[in-house]
Amino acid sequence: MALKLKLNGTERTVDAEPGTPLLWVIRDELKLTGTKFGCGVASCGACTVHVDGEPTRSCLTFVEDVVDAEITTIEGLDGRIADAVQQAWVELDVVQCGYCQSGQVMSAVGLLTGNARPSVEDINDYMAGNACRCATYQRIRAGIQRASEILEA
Amino acid sequence: MTIETSRRGFLQGASALAAVLVVGVGADGALAAGDAGAQLTPFIRIGADGRVTAIIKHFEMGQGPATGLSTLIAEELGLRMDQIGYDFAPSNPKLYANLAFGQFQGTGGSTAMANSFSQYRTAGAAAREMLIKAAARTWGVDAATLDIVDGAVVGGGKSAPLGDFVAAAAGMDVPASPRLKDPATWRLIGNADVRRLDSAIKGNGQAKFAMDLHLPNQMVAVIARPPQFGGLVAGFDDAAARSVKGFIRAATLPNKAGVAVYAENTWAAMQARDAVEVQWDMSQAESRSSATIRAEIEAALNAEPAYNVLKNAPAPMDKAEKIVEQTFYFPLLAHAAMEPLNCTIEADADGGVTLHDGCQFTTIPHMAMAQILQLPMEKVRINTMLAGGSFGRRATPTADYQVEAALAFAITDRTRPVKLVWSREDDMRGGYYRPAFGHKVRVGLDADGRIVAWDHRIAGQSIMKGTPFEATIVHDGVDHSSVEGVADTPYRIPGMHVGLTDTKKATSTLWWRSVGHTHTAYAMETMMEMAARAASRDPLEFRLEYLAGDQDGNSDRDRKAAVLKLAAEKAGWGKAAAGRSQGIAVHKSFGSYVAEVVEISGDASSGVRIERVTCAVDCGIAVNPDVIKAQMEGGIGYGIGHAMRDEITLTRGVVDQSNFPDYEPLRIGDIGAIDVHIVPSAAAPSGVGEPSTPPSAPALANAISAAGHQVSVMPMASNGVEFA
Description:
The complex is a heterodimer. By secondary structure, chain A is of the alpha+beta class. Chain A is 37% helix and 15% strand. Chain A has two domains: 2-75, Beta-grasp domain (Ubiquitin-like (UB roll), Roll); 80-152, [2Fe-2S]-binding domain (DNA polymerase, domain 1), CATH 1.10.150.120.
C-alpha cells in the first residue's frame, strides 16, 4: 500500500505493506543504503536512523508507525553536531570495515545532541547498543570526545 | 630476479582526455609485458587529466590495503595522498596474484602489505621514470634535472601536471629496474599522519558494500537451509509463500543443499522463506552435540597422538622435580562479520556474468562460477566491492556463498540479476567455524625451576585437510595450521614433544582471524605463566630466559624479547595499583611479534573489568603506523571479546546460537583503553591484521590468574569468570 513518509526533509511516497521494517523501506524501496542491515533484531545498531531526532533501530520499527514522524538517515544528517562528529571520525580514522559506522555516527550525534560533554561512562552507556565487529570502540570514544571539543571551540 | 620490461597505453573512450598510462609488475615480481593484452598488470592508471588511480589487488575489509598500497605508489610517484584514488583489481591471477600464494589471487594470512611492498613501489618508481623521461623530451632538457613533486613534473624553472606527459609516456618502454627512493627520503611510508582514504565515505554512508548493490530488475534470493549440517531437501511446499507480496518463486538448489526463495526485495524474500515449508532428508546430517565433540577431543588428548610433530631429544619428564599439567578446550567460533554474507550475479551482454562481491579469495569463486555456469574463465568477471568485515569468513576453499549464488542464478532464465542475501541467523548458523581444539600440556621443571621437558598434545578438527590447500600445508599427515605457534615456537624449550591427533569435523571448519594461533598462543602463553609461577619466577623474566642467547637483534627470539620488554615497560609491569592485576603474553604470527599486557580490576568471582591493554608490535617497516595501531586495537578486541563470552554449540547437530543476543559481541565498555607501541624496524613489512589477536586472550587469562583463577576452557564467562 502507498504510504507517505517525511524522510530527510522531503515527503516520499512508498509502496510497503504494514509490518514492513522501516530499514527495508529505506534500503530497498528508497535505495538509501547508508543505513545498514546487520542483525534484524535491534542488537547491533547498524540500522540506526533518527525518528523525530531520536536514534532508533529501523530494523524493528514498522513503517506504518512512523508516517507522522520526521525520519533522518545518514544521508540526510546535517547540522553542526553531525559535522563535528564526521570531522572527528576522519581526523581520528575511526573506521575500519566501516559497515557499522553509519549507525555509530547516528548514535553519536544523538548522544551529543542531549549531552554536549559526555563522560567516558556516558559514552559507554549510550553507545552500548552499537556493535562494531572490527572493535573500533576506542576510536569511537575518542571521536565523540573530539567532536565535543570541536563543538565547544 | 628476472625483470622484464613492458608497457601498455590504451585509449579509454573517444576523448583525448582519456589517454591513460598503466604500469604494472607481474605476478612473479617482474614488470609485466606491455602490449600483451590480458598479460598486462596495471597497478597504476593515470588519466590525461593527471588523476592517478592505484589498482588494489587485495580486498578491503577494513585492514587498510586500499590506503596502504596507494601510499606505496604515491611515495614513489611523488604524489600527495589527496592526489591518488583507488580501484579494486579485476580477477586475473596471472596479473594480480598474491605473491605469497603463488598463481592465486586472494587476500589472507596477513600478507597484503608483505607481498605488495616491493611490487607496488616498483610500479610507482617505473611510472615516475617514464613520466620524467617524457617531460624531458618535451622540454628538451636532461631528465636528471627533473623531479615529480606533489603530482607535477618540476625542474629547470618549469612545472606541469603529470597529465601533460601521459600520452608520451604511454608509448615508452617501462624501465627494467627503476630506482626506488632511499628510505631516508620517505615522506609517506612510516608517516603517522597519513590518513585512510576511505574514512569520509564510511562516516557519511556513501561507501558501497556488496549488500548495498541494487541492479536494475534484480531479484533477491534467500536460501532455506537444513537445520542440521548435511541435511538435504526432500521436498517443499510454497503455498503460503505465494501470499507474500513480492514473492517470485521457490526452487530446490541443484545440489539439494537448500531451497532458493526469490522475491522482488529483501524483506519479501525473508518473509516468503519463513512461509515455505521444507521437508528435509537428515539421514546424512551431523547429529552430534557439543559435549560429544568435546569428549572425542579429550579422548584423543589422552591417547597416543596420531602424529609426532616434534620430538626434541627424548622428553626427560622423569628428570623433572615438578610437573605442571593443564588441559585446555577451545570451542567452535563464528566470524560474525558485521555485513552478513551476500553477493550478486548478473548476466553480461556477451553471455558471460559478473559477480559483485566483497570478494576475498578471488580465484576460487572465479573458477566456481565458470564451472557451475559452464562458462570459459574469461567470461566470468568479478567486481570486488568493499567488504563489511570478514575475519577469514569470506575466504573459503569451497566458495560456499558464491556457489550458492551461482546455483540460484543458474536455475533462473538468467535474465535478471540475482542478489543472494544471508540473514544474521544464516551467517551465525552457516558453518565454516573456527574448529574446536583441545590441548593437553605437561611441563617438567627441575629443582632450580628450569624447564626440562614440555609435552604438548593437540587434538582437533583440521582446517586444511580435504581442501585444495592440503597439498601445500599438510605434510606427512600434519596440518601445520593445527600446530603453528607451538611446534615452531621461538622459545628455546628443551625436551619439547608435540603430538597431534585429528578428530572428526562436526561442521565445515575455517581459518578465523589468526588461524591456529587462536588456540596455540593461549595454550603456550598460559602454560609459560603456570610454569613461571610453579618456579616462583616473575613471568616476564621467565619468558625472557627462554628467548635469550642470540643477541643479534634480528632473530625470532630477539624480536620477540624486544616486544615483550617494550610492552612491559609501557604497561608499568609489576607496578599495578592495589586492586589491579596484570597478565602478559607474547606471540609470533604472520611474521610479526606482538606482546600484550592486560591490566584488570576485580577478580573472577567479584567481576573482572579490563582496564587497560598495552601492546607492543614489531611488524617490520611500519608503512602506515596509524593503520597498524588500529589493527592491533581491533585484533585485541576480537580476541578478547570471543574469549570473554562467545562460542558456537550444537545440540544434536543444530546450532544453538542464532544472532547477536546469544553470540554477544564485544561492546564499547568492555575494554577501558588500548595503547599500542610500534618497535622501529627496517625489516621487510610483515602481517598486521591478525597478529594482535593471539596474545590477547592469554594475556587476559594470565591477569585473571594473577587475581586467583585459572581459566583453561573457553569462553571464560561460561567457565568461572564473571565480568563486571
